[in-house]
# Entry
Amino acid sequence: MTQEYTMSSANLLLAHAEYYQAFAARNLQAMMDLWSLENISCVHPGWPVLVGRTAVIASYRDIFLNPQQPNIEVRQEQLLESEFEGRVFCIEEVGGALLIATNWFALQDSRWRLIHHQASPLALDSARLAHSGPATSFH
# Structure
């Protein structure tokens, strides 16, 4: 994909931002509205894979109920998009730890809906990350 974003790309980035806004607000309804109704999965850092809407939504409910859950700061978003699906890769900073995250969306009824989220620890130190540009490879 070129640096010039399409309207679809802008909508994909908006859906990605909505995910983190729902997380920051601990808004379970907004989180539920963002996820697809079927065939979803999620891997939170250190957790086993969660498959299905019931398990995924329950995990967010439990996370939102944790008063010590730190905020997430997001940076270095990169898109990989096709006609009916899009992935956004990003760096999450959570309580001082750096995670690499993938948010995978499917275009359903003219709206990007989340079908998979996965985050895991990033093996880069924060000083090196701060000096890297948005096109940094994660390998």
Summary: Residues 7-130 form a domain with the Nuclear Transport Factor 2; Chain: A, fold (CATH 3.10.450.50). Strands lie at 41-43, 50-51, 72-81, 85-94, 97-108, 111-121. The chain is about 30% helix and 35% strand.
